[in-house]
Design brief:
By secondary structure, the chain is of the alpha+beta class. It is built from 5 helices and 10 strands. Strands 1, 2, 3, 4, 5 and 6 form a 6-stranded antiparallel beta sheet that branches. A 4-stranded antiparallel beta sheet has the order 7-8-9-10. Helix 3 runs antiparallel to helix 4. The radius of gyration is 33 Å and the shape is elongated. The chain has 2 domains: 98 residues, no CATH class; 86 residues, no CATH class. Keywords: Membrane, Transmembrane, Transmembrane helix.
Length: 252
């Protein structure tokens, strides 16, 4: 009888220990699953947000520096409905510019919400922007160390505010032989210049093609200067652009 009682005690104790081990194992597996699910959800959320930001950056048809884009077009945060929270965005690197022969890249750090303030999970994406192309993106390693200083927007290229008056003044004293050089000297480098002389009329067009910014002024044989009006649709890519043809042979 004493032996049976001892066996029963041993059996009960063993079952209790086995139950405890199983409970611990289940708890560990549950936490691991929850952690994996959380990581997976966060990863899907950042990928979704990167895709969304790429769409927002969209099709590029204006000349801009990468720093200008980083400063003005990257939001501080984006809502992540799947996480019931927001994801913080920080530009961490930028280079180049969007132009006819260059591309811009902007690296953005996506910081995930975390219950532990000491730990901030993050993922980084590089956005590549090219003229007359849609923005693309890919995953990159996040840089180590402190974040760089916030980007500072540089003003986009534009004609001087007095471009029309400046052009009219040049035309007042220009001759057919000096017209092109005189107009070029009156405007900053990078300004598009086109001049022509047609039946005694001096024609000058100055503009910033990527900004659809254009002024056309003529001087008639009697010395008067006049602005030339035109439909700005002709400044769009693939159209005539800022040319003297807006006066000499306007599109129909």
């Amino acid at each position: 009888m004493r032996g049976i009682r001892a066996f029963v005690v041993w059996l009960v104790g063993s079952l209790v220990m086995v139950g405890a081990v199983i409970a611990v194992a289940v708890s560990v597996l549950t936490r691991a699953t929850e952690s994996a699910d959380g990581t997976s959800s966060a990863r899907r959320a950042t990928e979704s947000m990167a895709e969304e930001l790429g769409k927002d950056l969209g099709y590029r048809e204006r000349s801009r520096t990468a720093e200008h884009i980083a400063a003005t077009e990257i939001p501080a945060e984006m809502p992540a409905p799947s996480l019931d929270d927001s994801i913080r965005l920080t530009p961490v690197a930028w280079s180049g510019r969007v132009s006819s022969d260059e591309e811009a890249t902007v690296d953005v750090r996506f910081e995930l919400p975390s219950p532990d303030p000491a730990v901030t999970p993050a993922a980084c994406y590089r956005f590549t922007l090219k003229m007359y192309r849609y923005t693309t993106h890919k995953v990159v390693d996040c840089p180590e160390g402190t974040a760089p200083a916030a980007p500072s927007p540089s003003p986009p290229p534009s004609l001087p505010p007095d471009a029309r008056d400046r052009l009219a003044e040049v035309l007042k004293t220009a001759t057919p032989e000096t017209l092109a050089d005189a107009v070029r000297a009156a405007f900053p480098a990078g300004t598009g210049i086109d001049t022509a002389v047609v039946e005694g009329v001096l024609v000058a067009a100055v503009g910033i093609a990527a900004e659809r910014d254009c002024v056309v002024v003529i001087r008639t044989p009697d010395g008067r200067t006049k602005d030339v009006g035109f439909d700005r649709i002709w400044l769009e890519p693939g159209e005539m652009g800022c040319r003297t043809g807006l006066y000499t042979s306007p599109p129909r």
